Amino acid sequence: MTEKHYVIVGSGVAAVHAAKAIRDQDGEAVISIFGEENTLPYNRIKLSKGLFTDLHSEKVLIKKEKWYQTNNIKVQHGTTITAIDPKDKIVVTADGQDVAYHRLLLCTGASNRKLPMAGTMLRNVHNIRDLNDADQLKDSLVSGDRICVIGGGVQGVETAWSFIEAGYPVTIVEAAPRLMGRQLDEQASNLMLQKILEFGANVQLGQGVKCITGIDCVQGVELEDGSILPCEHVVYSIGIVPKTSLAGQAGIEVQGGILVNENMQTSDPSVYAAGDAAEFQGRVEGLWGGAMEQGRIAGMNMTGSPVAYERAVPVTLFNAFEMYLFSIGQVDEQQCDTSVVPTDSEPYTRIFIKDGLIAGVISFQGVAASLPYKTAIEQGIKYDTFNNKES
Ligand SMILES: Cc1cc2nc3c(=O)[nH]c(=O)nc-3n(C[C@H](O)[C@H](O)[C@H](O)COP(=O)(O)OP(=O)(O)OC[C@H]3O[C@@H](n4cnc5c(N)ncnc54)[C@H](O)[C@@H]3O)c2cc1C
User: Fold this and answer.
1) DSSP string, 20-82
2) Ligand 1 first shell, C-beta below 6 A
3) N or C: which end of the chain has fewer CB within 10 A?
4) Which residues form the NADH-rubredoxin oxidoreductase C-terminal domain (predicted)?
5) How high is the mean pLDDT in each 10-residue block of the chain (391 residues)?
């Protein structure tokens, strides 16, 4: 192989941003993206936020077809890569073709964590990771069906909102004592709970699910206290498992995700990984913004332009049940020195402080208000300085 061939396995947001970074650095090389889904890379977040919108619309694509043509990036969708031969630098497609690479990027993403209980094989038990999952779920719904959403994290609550908006009765079941516990403090969770109840949803907190009941099809969910929630569908969202098997089988180091250094390089110097599949400094980020940036960094390094990945301040923007809230940075009070709820803060806002610096913020002020806080956290601005400037 004389020409440079950058091969990217997986066709999500990390892959697109890697391909873009490679093309920006290298106008000549061949770039190929292999994706097992039957579509161009699309905005996966829409699968919960916009479940009942037209998910097959061009608007959902990360880049339109023309962009790939203009940038001479080949996308082979509907093509699964089944093996990597790192010695000969070859990947193998499901239909047996060998594809040679000089640099390989693994952006294989993640699968949804499976519910470990009886009843998950019943018809109408769903979890949404890709377009097919969303299509199948929507096709199976009949007007008036009751839906039990297991998992009260961001994705679960947003999915519940999509169902409520579409007119389906919903119950959210969350094993933890509050909703969105990773992003919200107790008061914000309570405010959210009140709002969700106002929309007629049922919410069961501090309740583990024992099993899903039914014969062929879902008939209900049995909770750990023995009570039964009758429903026709279960939709669960309880975290992700990075797709690492390709890398693992090729002898590339894997733990929770595919291990990468700050250049997104794996234990094989010709192979990189980014996005939900990758583990950096002991963590799989599992976030859209992180996947985008990791893809960009991987692409740069693959072309020989060294640049280190720096984990961004985590940002959750939430827009459902007529609530516009954000949670940025460190919002675990155990990890901070103190916190301030500004007296004039209506809607609710809480600022977390560590070593005098703003470490995190939870606020119902709306997405636009998040920017100054994000900048303050990124730039290490003292709370007093920020407060004086704002007042
Ligand atoms: C419903 C939903 C809602 C979400 N909401 C949010 C949100 O609000 N905010 C947020 O920050 N994040 C959210 N996320 C997470 C976010 O979508 C992911 O972090 C992001 O998509 C990861 O991008 P990626 O490119 O690493 O992987 P993915 O988007 O998972 O793409 C990987 C692709 O690779 C393909 N693939 C895997 N193995 C192979 C193979 N062997 N051969 C060929 N192709 C392969 C997969 O089929 C998939 O198409 C959400 C995720 C879901 C599912």
Assistant:
1) HHHHHH-SSSEEEEEESSSSS-B-TTHHHHTTTS-TTSGGGBSS-HHHHHHTTEEEEET--EE
2) 9-15, 34-37, 44-45, 47-48, 80-81, 107-110, 128-129, 154-155, 243, 246, 275-277, 286-289, 291
3) C
4) 314-381
5) 88 98 97 98 94 96 98 97 98 98 98 95 97 97 97 94 97 96 95 97 95 97 96 95 98 98 98 98 94 98 97 90 94 93 83 96 91 93 86 61
CA-closest residue to ligand 1 atom 41 = 81
Write out pLDDT tens, residues 234-262: 999 889 999 999 999 999 999 999 999 99
> Residue 125 burial by CB count (10 A; 0-12/13-18/19+): exposed, middle or buried?
buried
| Cα(47) to centroid(ligand 1), Å | 11
**13 Cα–ligand 1 center, Å:** 7
Q: Give the alpha-carbon dihedral of 19, 21, 26, 28, to 10 degrees.
A: 30
**295 Cα nearest atom in ligand 1:** 25
- The ligand 1 atom at the shortest distance from the C-alpha of residue 276 is 26
Residue of the CA atom closest to atom 38 of ligand 1: 108
Ligand 1: which residue has its CA nearest to atom 53? 129
Question: Could you say which of 3.40.50.720, 3.50.50.60, 3.40.50.300, 3.10.180.10 is the CATH number of the domain covering 5-111+240-302?
Answer: 3.50.50.60
Domain 315-390 CATH (choose: 3.40.50.12780, 3.40.50.2300, 3.40.50.300, 3.30.390.30): 3.30.390.30
Q: What are 3-42's pLDDT values in tens digits?
A: 899 999 999 999 999 999 999 999 999 999 999 999 999 9
Q: Is residue 160 within 8 Å of residue 149, measured between CB atoms?
A: yes
